[in-house]
């Protein structure tokens, strides 16, 4: 049996750093929305062969570090019994370390796919708990609903931001999340905002607290933000390097995309409040 599922990107429509935990991790307030663009994973059961295997190794990521295999192994450990073998292939479209949550999304898709194929019957809260052990962004992908995130992003309140179109640009640099969070000049004391049960605010009123530090350290990001913000609000997602500009229609986004400076990569995508992963899983039921 074969199952092909999306692993969508996320955007942090805003990202405030509101404090620091005793273990050094930063407390955030952020608004997550998904994009209808991302990686695609194909799971094939191989009952004759035990174990989980990656059919498409990822350059630069040893298999044992790959969040897909780590998610599968965490699930096997939780199940505590021998499960049918599975081969996982990935069509990797999201830039790695781009602030789009690609690795976390791959992990979440793996958790949901294998829960389904292995008939484990674990609920979303349990899967999100397993996912949190792999990365702070995994729970929102497991729950599959746009959300206001608190804590390190794991305390989630469903949200309904407008489903606009986005131009996403990937400046040609790699940003290490740990480096940004350890920068001395980082804003860490943004006052907490109060959130209604269903956040519907205008995210363009809020900021990404990592942006000033990232702009100073990475001129490529600064230049891209300057260019994109000529056409409307533009912002960094996560700790970067990707930036996004928001547009009311696909055609408005595509006009700006076509005029982007040469040498910069990225894509145009729609913001969606229900994850494409959950949409697909519902269709399969
Ligand atoms: C910033 C966010 C926002 O969505 O996204 P990305 O830019 O990575 O996509 C996430 O919170 C990223 O969470 P996560 O994916 O778990 O972070 P990691 O790369 O494991 O973090 C690397 C390091 O950054 C620091 N770190 C990370 C998250 C956080 N809330 N506080 C921190 O201080 C820690 O020192 C950690 O060891
Ligand atoms: N399946 C995976 N896809 C992408 N990155 C992965 C994966 N597994 C492990 N990683 C590691 O996680 C890091 C962060 O990846 P990613 O989730 O794409 O970025 P970000 O957290 O900035 O959104 C990568 O640099 C890579 O070393």
UniProtKB/TrEMBL annotation:
Catalytic activity: 4-CDP-2-C-methyl-D-erythritol + ATP = 4-CDP-2-C-methyl-D-erythritol 2-phosphate + ADP + H(+)
Matches recorded under Gene3D superfamilies: 3.30.230.10, GHMP kinase, C-terminal domain (3.30.70.890)
Biological processes annotated in GO: isopentenyl diphosphate biosynthetic process, methylerythritol 4-phosphate pathway; terpenoid biosynthetic process
GO MF term set: 4-(cytidine 5'-diphospho)-2-C-methyl-D-erythritol kinase activity; ATP binding
InterPro entries: GHMP_kinase_C_dom (IPR013750), GHMP_kinase_C_sf (IPR036554), GHMP_kinase_N_dom (IPR006204), IspE (IPR004424), Ribosomal_Su5_D2-typ_SF (IPR020568), Ribsml_uS5_D2-typ_fold_subgr (IPR014721)
Assigned keywords, A-Z: ATP-binding, Isoprene biosynthesis, Kinase, Nucleotide-binding, Transferase
EC main group: transferase
Annotated TM spans: none
Function: Catalyzes the phosphorylation of the position 2 hydroxy group of 4-diphosphocytidyl-2C-methyl-D-erythritol.
Name of the protein described by the UniProt record: 4-diphosphocytidyl-2-C-methyl-D-erythritol kinase
Organism the protein comes from: Marinobacter lutaoensis
Gene assigned in the entry: ispE
């Amino acid at each position: 049996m074969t199952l092909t599922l999306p692993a969508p990107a996320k955007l942090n429509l805003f990202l405030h750093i509101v404090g620091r935990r005793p273990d050094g991790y930063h407390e955030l307030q952020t608004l997550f929305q998904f994009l209808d663009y991302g990686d695609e994973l194909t799971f094939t059961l191989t009952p004759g062969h035990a174990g989980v295997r990656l059919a498409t190794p990822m350059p630069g990521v040893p298999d044992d570090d790959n969040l897909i295999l780590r998610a599968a192994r965490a699930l096997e450990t939780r199940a505590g019994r021998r499960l049918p073998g599975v081969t996982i292939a990935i069509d990797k479209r999201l830039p790695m370390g781009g602030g789009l949550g690609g690795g976390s999304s791959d992990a979440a898709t793996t958790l949901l796919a294998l829960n389904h194929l292995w008939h484990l019957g674990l609920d979303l809260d349990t899967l999100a708990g397993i996912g949190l052990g792999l990365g702070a962004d995994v729970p929102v992908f497991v729950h599959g609903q746009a959300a206001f995130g608190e804590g390190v992003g794991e305390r989630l309140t469903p949200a309904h931001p407008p489903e606009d179109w986005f131009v996403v640009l990937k400046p040609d640099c790699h940003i290490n999340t740990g480096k940004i969070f350890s920068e001395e000049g980082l804003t860490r004391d943004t006052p907490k905002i109060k959130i209604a049960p269903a956040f519907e605010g205008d995210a363009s009123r809020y900021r990404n607290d990592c942006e000033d530090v990232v702009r100073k350290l990475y001129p490529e990001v600064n230049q891209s933000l300057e260019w994109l913000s000529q056409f409307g609000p533009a912002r960094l997602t996560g700790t970067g390097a990707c930036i996004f500009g928001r547009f009311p229609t696909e055609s408005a986004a595509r006009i700006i995309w076509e005029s982007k400076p040469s040498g910069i990569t990225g894509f145009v995508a729609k913001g969606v409040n229900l994850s494409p992963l959950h949409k697909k899983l519902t269709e399969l039921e």
